[in-house]
């Protein structure tokens, strides 16, 4: 690969931005395409599919063959609240290939015994997220039921464009949450992105079932997300 393209690729990956290294197998020319770069026609459609799926591979477009080497930032889940749902979600997330972090300032809940081997931070979200900011490849899951803990990361998730934003609670609870987020300056369209009640509607009852519903919702949002610079 051309050294300039390699530097560009590494810069984008270090910044947790999605890129594709495209090689024309006919003439050997290659280029780095960042998510959101305009590419028209059938090739653009193939590139969009690759960004969503994360799969590298050969594509044939109008009698020309291209190899798309896809580099997506590792999708991660940040769960606010070291509760029973998060315990189940953490185990499932690892199996599904997600990095996961649990944040909760309540040290009675955020213990190594309850989250062995999991990235656990017993501190306030507003402090943690300064050093570990959210981004477009992060799913934010707020499950404490405590506005003092949940509201800040929810607001940050909307501002930074997390691909999934979910919050536990009834419709009545969410209506109050909407009022608070509106007061923080978020518009109706932004707030409507929140999955609340959280997760897919599968009739989940137990913490483990709710975790299944959340993880399935996260996967659906990741694979069907609008690409940067594009419509839904």
Side-by-side strand order of the widest sheet: 7-6-5-8-9-10
Question: Architecture of the largest domain, according to CATH?
Answer: 3-Layer(aba) Sandwich
Helical percentage: 40-55%
Annotation field: number of helices: 8
State the fourth-level CATH superfamily of the largest domain.
NAD(P)-binding Rossmann-like Domain
Element order, helices and strands? HEEHEEEHEEHEHEHHEH
Shape: elongated
Averaging pLDDT over every residue, what do you get? 93
The first-level CATH class of the largest domain is given as Alpha Beta
Low-confidence stretches: none
Largest sheet: 6 strands, parallel
Quantity of strands, as a count: 10
- Radius of gyration over all CA atoms, rounded: 20 Å
Number of domains: 2
What do we call the CATH topology of the largest domain?
Answer: Rossmann fold
Structural class: alpha/beta
Distance between the termini: 33 Å
Quaternary structure classification: single chain
Assess the beta-strand content as a share of residues: 15-25%
Please give a structural write-up:
This protein is of the alpha/beta class and 232 residues long. It folds into two domains: 69 residues, no CATH class; 149 residues, Rossmann fold (3-Layer(aba) Sandwich), CATH 3.40.50.720. The protein is built from eight helices and ten strands. It has a six-stranded parallel beta sheet with strand order 7-6-5-8-9-10, with helices on both faces. Helix 3 packs across helix 8. The protein is elongated and about 60 Å long.
């Amino acid at each position: 690969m051309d050294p300039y393209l390699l530097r560009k690729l590494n810069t984008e990956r270090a910044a947790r931005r999605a890129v594709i290294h495209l090689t024309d197998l006919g003439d050997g020319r290659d280029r780095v395409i960042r998510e959101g770069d305009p590419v028209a026609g059938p090739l653009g459609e193939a590139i969009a599919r690759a960004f969503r799926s994360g799969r590298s591979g050969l594509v044939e477009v109008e009698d020309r063959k291209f190899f798309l080497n896809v580099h997506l930032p590792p999708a991660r889940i940040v769960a606010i609240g070291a509760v029973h749902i998060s315990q189940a979600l953490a185990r499932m997330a690892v199996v599904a290939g997600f990095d996961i972090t649990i944040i909760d300032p309540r040290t009675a809940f955020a213990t190594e015994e309850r989250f062995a081997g999991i990235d656990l931070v017993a501190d306030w979200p507003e402090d943690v997220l300064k050093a570990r900011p959210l981004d477009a490849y992060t799913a934010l899951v707020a499950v404490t039921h405590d506005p003092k803990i949940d509201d800040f990361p929810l607001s940050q998730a909307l501002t930074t464009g997390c691909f999934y934003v979910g919050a536990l609670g009834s419709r009545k609870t969410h209506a109050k949450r909407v009022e608070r987020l509106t007061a923080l300056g978020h518009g109706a369209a932004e707030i409507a992105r929140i999955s609340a009640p959280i997760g897919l509607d599968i009739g989940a009852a137990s913490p483990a079932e709710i975790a299944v519903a959340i993880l399935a919702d996260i996967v659906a949002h990741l694979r069907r997300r609008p690409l940067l610079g594009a419509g839904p």
